[in-house]
Structure formats: structure tokens, C-alpha cells
């Protein structure tokens, strides 16, 4: 008998349970994979470089993940008990003892959880290898990922299963108990228009002001290092967005529906007479969930934006520090060539550029002071003959213009201003120079800023020091062995320049020293002898891949959670709500029109959160990508998110229509 | 002849536990007829009405209305036909909980996108006629069962359907409301030549019909035509019910 009740209620809400179980088992599968990856031996062997870092991260991440998944399960698992309220109340009226109903609530949850875990562990076993291979692929590691789950992990999973299932079942049993104690059927939703209308208006106002503020943030963001204005703006925008959205959901949207419903010429035509009221009812029921999903989506998009720009910044920094796999100057080139010959490195490209070092003085805007320093000069044509990637962060110039390349003070923000009136020793003053921060041959090859000058200017200008830079690109790395590197160690510093500043530039001069001066003086500069990406490149690629892996995993998981919550909210209509659709069909409303109502309901449920989330996450772009263009990749990331999200909308529409239609043919 | 039902049958459920709700029923109804369908509970009255009104498809047989074989229609066309020509009073009322009384009643007109003036006119007329003006702003779940039934009747009648299907229209009404409703049904039947098919348990209600058929175990058992006098017809119906029941368990509930 009781088994029958459980079985019936499971089959009644088949579709909803299926979605819930799939979402849960996805979470469990990902959790299992994260846990078991941490101590996978092939991962350890392949990623020696990282020591316990990967392990630590996966453990922390899986913990965080488990926590979120658990909250999700508590929250969503409760939907099902709520759905059975009427059934339970009837059973009790018929004289079934209360404890049995509570037990039914308990075992139902336990069965569903057990199923989810079974599938989830299955997913772990099946997809562990796949995910591992994907991780290796992303990290650019050529290594076979062997499947492995240690007994320890299995035991841990089992413990978590028992514990979480117990807790969830108890929670649902308590929920059943509360339903039985609080008999009253449904809470009548108070319309309270006197509150909703002003609240909605205020919400719209807040959202508007947040948008305007975002517009200013685009401009003000570059002051972040010295002004608190942008920070205040960000805090304001966040507050206004979060509260404004809630108020709009609470007040504005219902009011709109209400007004439409009051206009009889619209409302009394076709199914509108029903659908407006129906939508309003559904909206009232789902306000907090919609809001919650909106904010989480906005958060997810903001995090993705943050991750993207963070990665970009690090990538850029890395690229401008090491544009060549190996770089050398005239003093070291011979030794390095010899070493490369010894180990048969496959050279893909080699570059060579002459430079002149001279003294300059100018007023620096960013430091707000006069600067006197040596500067490396390169001719325009030499600059142009280098690979494109060397020019990535620099303003574009033509053959008559000057370009000053300097260190970028901040990781994220570039200040694309220009520099004026730079005096050069024994050469014409440079009136106007564009700015950039990508150093050809890498920033570490230079002791100070660099200047790209027109060819004529370069040929005519004198040089305090002349040098030549060399750069190599390889197929499969430079293959320098540990011993070779040790030998090269002595060539890291090529020479030292001691600058003797006098009253004028003409009188000042540079003294080149081969030996490191004993006492470091303020005006001593070091020219690097060679520069090698080596391990760093590997580390960077692997770290980037790992980062990508984790970010992707988490975003997909979040998306699955949000999408399934919405889908379940759509599917789990109250009994009387789904009966109404059947009634409509009985009085001769065409199926396509009822389908239209279901579609509108789904569209409303899915479209509202994503639109508001997109509006809000726009702010996060303002924070990182201010000033110029919207980056293509960011649009791509957002687009991907929206597409995956709408996939859920479509699935939810299909499933919910199927459920409604099933009832039609009874 | 407006409605011709030819050898329809309908089963419910899977093989082992199948219920033969309708076994083999043929039936003809003239335009402007007021046909009563009687029979014990579970006889298949509702199922028969549902099939004639295209709410359910028969497993076998044809249903021809105005020369059109409705069983060949696509679902969509059936719905359109249903909406334009038919009115329904369901046994379970089928009112929409989200809407208030007024909206429920005007629903058929609204669905046909009638103009607002006509809607208001017809609405006031129906509410006056059935004596339920004071209900117009109420929510459905605040109504008594009988009130719901009369609201459902108002909805069925508001757009002057050509064919009215009434499944136990007086089941939950007091005798005064029942008489008002039945009189109105008789009036539209006579004046506007609305064809009415009504299922009922109640001999008094059935006595308003021009013809009554008796269904039992999924077949038509017999039929009586109204001789013109209601009292006599009433007697005949009572007698027939006795015969059908034959001291059967169901008989008890059907007798006065
Ligand atoms: N959707 C259904 N699924 C399964 N069996 C059904 C279904 N609808 C009706 N039946 C069965 O078909 C038979 C006829 O039912 P129907 O509702 O037509 O009876 P009825 O004559 O209208 O009874 P009542 O006087 O109680 O309204 C019954 O045995 C019933 O159990
Ligand atoms: Mg019936």
C-alpha cells in the first residue's frame, strides 16, 4: 500500500523528477570527478611542475561545489513535497496516521537521492577519463590520462551519500510534517496594489539610475587608482541593480499585466482573457525565484567577465614580457647559438634588430615629474619587420610617427595617452609620441622605455651605446638542457650602464661597464644578456588550461542548476493550474492556442531573468573593458551563456507542453 | 437529421483491465430535438456525450454532424467546430479558477473575439435570466456547488450554441434554479431550435426532453418519445428506470 503511494507519486511527477535527478547526478558526477582527479596518479605524473597545487585546488573546488549542490538539493527537493500537499492532506483525512505520511516523505526523498547518486557515480566512472583528457588537452599536456578511483575516494563518496541523503530525507520529512500541521490550503496572495505600484516605479527608477551610473563608470573607471568615485559608483550600481530588480519583479511586472488585463479591448479578446490572469498568478508565485535566478545569472556573467579579463591581463603581461622563446643581445648571441646547435633545436624563426641607446629627458605625465634616463631607440622599419604579436598592445603608427613604449603601471588598465616634447641628446626633440606597452624582444630585455622612430631620424641620431637584439622561435621548444642553462647562467647580465647626468643632456653621458659595479648607484642600468620562456611558457599554458577547465565546469554547473530550477518551477504547476488548461481545451480553445499559453509562460519565466541579468552584467564589462570597444570574445562568452540558457528554456517548454498534452487525452 | 452516430465504441485502459465504456451505439438526432440520455452511473453517458461533442475520439465508428464526419477532422478543426457551434455544461463544471464569474461566463464570446458591446449585452441578459447578477464579481472557489453549476450553464448558453451538451445540468441545483434552467433550455430549444443533448439521472429533468434514450453497459437499451404530456412522460421514464434497474443496486439512487 505505502509502496504503491510512493511509486505513484514518483510516476506522477516523472518528468520533474527526471530533470531533478539528472541535475543532481550531474552535480554528483562532477563532484566525483573533481574528488578523484585530485589524487589521480597520471595527473600527478603529468603535472609534477605543480606539486600539490592542482590537488589543493580540486579539493577546495569540490568542497565548494558540494556545498552549493547540497543547498540546491535542499531547496529544489522541497518543491516535490510541496507539490504533494493536497495528496497528503487527503490521506490524512482518510485516517492515515501522520507518522506514515512523514515516513513516505522520507523514503520518497531517499529513493530519489539514491537514484541520483547511482547515476552520478556512474557518470563519474564513465566521464572521468573524458574529463581528464579534456583537462590535459586544455593544459596542452601530452600525456595519457588513466582512469583511477581510489578506495579512499569511493569511501568518501559513500559517506557523503549516506550523510546527505539522510539529511535531505529528514528535511523533507520535516517539511511533510509542517504541511500536515499547517492545514490551510493555499496562501492567498495579497495583491496590495497600493504597495506594488510605487515599489515598481521606484524599482524602475533604481534600474535606470544604475544604467546611467554605468555609463559614467565607463568614463570614471580609469581613475580607480587615485579616486574613490568609481568604487562608490560600483557599489551603488550593485545595490540599485539588486534591489531595483526585485522591486520591478514585485511591483512593475504584475502592474503591467494588471493594466493589460484591465484594458478590456485587449483582455477580452481570445485566450488573453485567461492568459493574462494566469501569467500574473504564475508570476506572483515565482517572484523570489525569478529574482534569485536573475541575480545568480548576473553574478555568473560578471564572474565570467572577470575571469576573461583577468586571463587577458595575465596573458598580455606574459606576452609582453616574453614575446620570443629565446632572446639575446650582441654579447650573448654567439654562446647561445653554439648551445642551440649542440642540441639540434628546430628553429622556426629568427630575428635580429639593431638598436641605439641614447639619453632623453621629458616631463612624464603619469609620474608628474621630469625624467632623465637612457632610452632604447629602434627604427620604424625594424619594428615593422618583427612578428605582429610584438605590437599587440601598442598604438598604431605610420612611418613618420613616434611611439614610446613603457612599462604598464597597472595590470588591467592601459592609459592610451601620448607623451610630448621629449628631448634627445644631440638629436631633434620629439614633439609628439604615441604610447604602447608591448616591448619588442620583451620588457625584461630592456632597462627602460623604448622609442620607435622614423627611419631617417634613426639613421641620423647619435648613439651612446649600440646594441643588436636577437630573437628565436622554435618548434617544440629550445630544448636547452639543465646543464646548458647552468652554463648560460653567467650571461644573464650583458653589461651595465652608469649614467653621469650633468646640467644638460649634451654634457651627460653613459659609461658602459662589463663588470657589475660594486656599489649600486641610482643611475646604473643593467642590459639583460638573454631571456628565455622555458618552463614559464609551459607553466603558463598549463595554468591557463586548468583555470579554463575549472571556470567552464563551474559555469556549466551553475547554468544547469539555474536552468533546472526554472524548468521545475514551470513544470510543477499547482494541480488546479494544469486542470485549467485542460478545461480550456474542453470548451473549444484550440490546442495551438493552449500551446501558445504554455510557450508564453516559459518565455516569460526564462526571458525575464536573462534580460535583467544581461542588463546588470553590462556593468562588469564597464569595470574591465572601459573606454574603447566591446571585445568580441566577451560577446562570444555572453552569447554562449545565453544560448545554453535558452536551451533550457526550449527543453522546459517541450517537456511542459508534453505534460499538459498528456492530460488532454485522458 | 443533424447528428448521426454510427456504431461507435470506446474502451478505456489496457488490455487486462480494459473497460468497455461504449460498446456499440448508433443514434440519430434531428435538428431542434431535446434528447435525454439516461442510465445508471458508469453506464457511459458522459463518455457518449464527450464523443459526440468531439472531446474524445471513439475507437470505432463515425460521428456525422451536419453532414460532416467529425471523426475525420484534425484536432485543430475539431476545436474550432466545438467552439463555434457547441455549448457545454459539464458534470464537473470545468470553470476556470483563475477567473472570476463574469470572466468565466463571457469566455466563449471572448474566445470568438466578439465586440465588447455584444459581450456586455449578452452577459447582463444571461445573468438576469438565471438570477445570478449578484455573483458576477465573485471568485469561483467562493461559490457553492449549485452556484457553480448555474454559472457553468450561463457560460454554455451565452453564445447561443447550435448544439448544447448538458451533462447532469441540474445535479447540484435546488428545484427552483433547476426549473429556471430547464425552462430556459426548453425555450431556446423551441424558439431558436437549438439541439440539446442532456445526460441525467433525474426523471423530472428528463421529462423536459422530447425523447429519452436509456444507456446501459455501453449500449442503447431502449428509448421513449415524449407523448406531449409531461406527467405521462415522467411516469413512463420512472417505469423504464425500474425495468432497467431490475432491483439492481443502482436502482435505489434513481428512484424517488
Ligand atoms: N478516463 C477514463 N479512464 C478509464 N475509464 C473511464 C474513463 N472515463 C470513464 N471511464 C469508465 O467508463 C465507464 C463509463 O463512464 P461514464 O463517465 O461515461 O459514466 P456515466 O454514465 O457518465 O456515469 P455517471 O452517471 O456517474 O456520470 C465507467 O465504467 C468509467 O469507469
Ligand atoms: Mg457522467
Automatic annotation (TrEMBL), chain B:
PANTHER family: ALPHA-D-RIBOSE 1-METHYLPHOSPHONATE 5-TRIPHOSPHATE SYNTHASE SUBUNIT PHNL, LIPOPROTEIN-RELEASING SYSTEM ATP-BINDING PROTEIN LOLD
SUPFAM superfamilies named among the record's database cross-references: P-loop containing nucleoside triphosphate hydrolases
Residue ranges of domain ABC transporter in the record: 3-242
UniProt-listed GO biological process terms: amino acid transport
Gene3D superfamilies referenced in this protein's UniProt entry, alphabetically: P-loop containing nucleotide triphosphate hydrolases
Gene Ontology CC annotations of this record: membrane protein complex
Keywords, sorted A to Z: Amino-acid transport, ATP-binding, Nucleotide-binding, Transport
GO molecular function, one term: transmembrane transporter activity
Family: Belongs to the ABC transporter superfamily.
Protein name stated in the entry: ABC transporter ATP-binding protein
Amino acid at each position: 500500500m505505502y509502496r504503491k503511494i510512493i511509486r505513484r507519486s514518483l510516476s506522477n511527477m516523472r518528468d520533474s523528477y527526471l530533470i531533478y535527478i539528472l541535475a543532481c547526478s550531474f552535480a554528483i558526477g562532477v563532484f566525483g570527478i573533481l574528488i578523484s582527479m585530485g589524487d589521480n596518479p597520471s595527473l600527478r605524473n603529468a603535472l609534477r611542475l605543480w606539486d600539490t597545487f592542482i590537488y589543493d585546488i580540486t579539493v577546495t573546488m569540490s568542497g565548494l561545489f558540494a556545498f552549493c549542490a547540497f543547498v540546491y538539493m535542499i531547496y529544489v527537493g522541497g518543491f516535490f513535497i510541496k507539490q504533494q500537499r493536497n495528496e497528503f492532506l487527503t490521506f490524512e483525512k482518510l485516517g492515515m496516521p501522520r507518522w506514515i505520511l512523514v515516513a513516505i516523505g522520507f523514503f520518497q526523498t531517499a529513493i530519489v537521492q539514491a537514484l541520483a547518486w547511482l547515476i552520478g557515480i556512474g557518470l563519474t566512472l564513465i566521464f572521468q577519463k573524458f574529463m581528464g583528457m579534456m583537462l590535459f588537452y586544455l593544459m596542452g599536456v601530452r600525456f595519457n590520462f588513466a582512469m583511477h578511483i581510489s578506495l579512499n575516494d569511493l569511501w568518501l563518496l559513500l559517506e557523503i551519500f549516506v550523510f546527505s541523503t539522510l539529511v535531505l530525507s529528514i528535511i523533507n520529512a520535516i517539511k511533510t510534517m509542517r504541511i500536515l500541521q499547517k492545514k490551510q490550503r493555499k496562501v492567498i496572495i495579497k495583491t496590495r496594489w497600493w504597495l506594488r505600484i510605487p515599489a515598481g516605479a521606484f524599482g524602475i527608477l533604481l534600474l535606470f539610475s544604475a544604467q546611467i551610473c554605468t555609463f559614467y563608470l565607463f568614463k570614471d573607471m580609469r581613475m580607480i587608482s587615485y579616486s574613490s568615485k568609481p568604487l562608490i559608483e560600483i557599489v551603488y550600481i550593485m545595490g540599485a541593480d539588486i534591489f531595483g530588480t526585485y522591486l520591478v519583479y514585485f511591483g512593475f511586472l504584475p502592474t503591467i499585466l494588471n493594466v493589460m488585463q484591465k484594458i478590456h479591448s485587449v483582455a477580452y479578446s481570445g485566450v488573453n482573457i485567461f492568459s493574462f490572469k494566469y501569467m500574473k498568478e504564475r508570476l506572483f508565485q515565482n517572484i523570489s525565484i525569478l529574482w534569485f535566478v536573475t541575480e545568480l545569472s548576473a553574478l555568473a556573467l560578471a564572474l565570467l567577465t572577470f575571469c576573461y579579463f583577468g586571463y587577458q591581463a595575465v596573458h598580455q603581461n606574459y606576452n609582453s614580457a616574453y614575446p620570443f622563446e629565446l632572446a639575446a643581445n650582441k654579447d650573448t648571441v654567439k654562446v647561445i647559438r653554439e648551445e642551440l646547435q649542440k642540441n639540434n633545436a628546430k628553429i622556426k624563426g629568427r630575428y635580429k634588430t639593431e638598436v641605439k641607446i641614447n639619453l632623453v629627458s621629458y616631463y612624464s605625465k603619469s609620474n608628474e615629474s621630469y625624467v632623465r634616463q637612457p632610452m632604447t631607440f629602434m627604427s620604424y622599419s625594424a619594428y615593422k619587420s618583427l612578428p605582429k604579436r610584438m605590437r599587440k598592445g601598442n598604438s598604431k603608427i605610420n612611418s613618420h610617427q613616434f611611439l614610446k613604449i613603457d612599462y604598464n603601471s597597472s595590470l588591467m588598465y592601459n592609459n592610451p595617452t601620448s607623451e610630448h616634447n621629449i628631448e634627445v641628446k644631440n638629436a631633434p626633440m620629439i614633439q609628439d609620441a604615441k604610447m604602447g606597452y608591448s616591448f619588442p624582444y620583451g620588457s625584461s630585455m630592456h632597462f627602460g622605455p623604448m622609442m620607435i622612430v622614423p627611419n631617417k631620424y634613426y639613421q641620423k641620431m647619435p648613439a651612446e651605446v649600440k646594441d643588436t637584439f636577437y630573437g628565436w622561435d622554435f618548434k617544440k621548444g629550445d630544448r636547452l638542457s639543465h646543464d646548458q642553462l647552468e652554463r648560460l647562467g653567467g650571461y644573464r647580465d650583458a653589461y651595465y650602464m652608469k649614467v653621469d647626468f650633468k646640467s644638460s643632456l649634451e654634457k651627460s653621458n653613459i659609461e658602459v661597464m662589463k663588470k657589475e659595479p660594486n656599489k649600486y648607484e641610482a643611475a646604473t642600468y643593467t642590459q639583460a644578456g638573454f631571456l628565455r620562456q622555458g618552463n614559464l611558457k609551459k607553466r603558463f599554458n598549463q595554468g591557463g588550461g586548468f583555470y579554463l577547465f575549472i571556470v567552464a565546469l563551474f559555469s556549466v554547473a551553475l547554468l544547469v542548476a539555474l536552468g533546472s530550477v526554472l524548468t521545475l518551477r514551470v513544470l510543477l504547476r499547482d494541480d488546479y493550474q494544469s486542470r485549467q488548461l485542460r478545461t480550456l481545451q474542453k470548451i473549444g480553445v484550440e490546442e495551438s492556442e493552449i500551446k501558445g499559453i504554455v510557450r508564453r509562460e516559459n518565455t516569460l519565466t526564462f526571458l525575464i531573468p536573462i534580460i535583467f541579468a544581461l542588463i546588470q552584467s553590462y556593468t562588469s564589462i564597464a569595470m574591465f573593458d572601459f573606454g574603447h570597444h566591446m571585445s568580441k570574445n566577451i560577446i562570444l562568452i555572453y552569447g554562449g551563456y545565453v544560448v545554453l540558457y535558452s536551451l533550457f528554456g526550449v527543453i522546459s517548454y517541450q517537456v511542459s507542453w508534453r505534460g499538459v498534452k498528456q492530460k488532454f487525452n485522458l | 437529421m443533424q447528428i448521426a452516430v454510427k456504431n461507435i465504441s470506446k474502451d478505456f485502459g489496457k488490455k487486462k483491465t480494459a473497460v468497455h465504456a461504449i460498446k456499440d451505439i448508433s443514434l440519430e438526432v434531428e435538428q431542434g430535438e431535446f434528447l435525454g440520455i439516461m442510465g445508471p452511473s458508469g453506464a457511459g453517458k458522459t463518455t457518449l456525450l464527450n464523443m459526440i461533442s468531439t472531446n474524445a475520439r471513439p475507437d470505432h465508428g463515425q460521428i456525422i454532424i451536419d453532414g460532416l464526419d467529425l471523426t475525420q477532422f484534425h484536432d485543430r478543426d475539431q476545436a474550432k467546430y466545438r467552439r463555434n457551434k457547441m455549448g457545454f455544461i459539464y458534470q464537473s463544471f470545468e470553470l476556470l479558477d483563475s477567473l472570476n464569474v463574469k470572466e468565466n461566463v463571457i469566455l466563449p464570446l471572448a474566445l470568438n473575439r466578439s465586440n465588447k458591446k455584444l459581450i456586455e449585452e449578452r452577459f447582463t441578459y444571461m445573468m438576469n435570466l438565471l438570477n445570478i447578477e449578484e455573483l458576477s464579481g465573485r471568485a469561483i472557489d467562493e461559490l457553492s456547488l449549485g452556484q457553480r453549476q448555474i454559472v457553468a450553464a450561463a457560460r454554455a448558453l451565452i453564445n447561443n450554441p447550435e448544439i448544447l451538451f448538458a451533462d447532469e445540468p441540474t445535479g447540484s441545483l435546488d428545484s427552483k434554479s433547476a426549473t429556471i434552467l430547464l425552462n430556459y433550455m426548453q425555450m431556446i430549444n423551441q424558439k431558436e431550435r437549438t439541439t440539446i443533448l442532456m445526460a441525467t439521472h433525474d426523471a423530472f429533468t428528463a421529462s423536459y426532453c422530447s425523447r429519452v434514450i436509456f444507456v446501459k453497459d455501453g449500449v442503447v437499451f431502449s428509448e421513449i418519445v415524449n407523448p406531449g404530456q409531461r406527467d405521462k412522460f415522467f411516469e413512463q421514464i420512472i417505469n423504464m428506470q425500474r425495468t432497467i434497474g431490475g432491483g439492481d443496486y443502482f436502482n435505489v439512487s434513481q428512484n424517488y
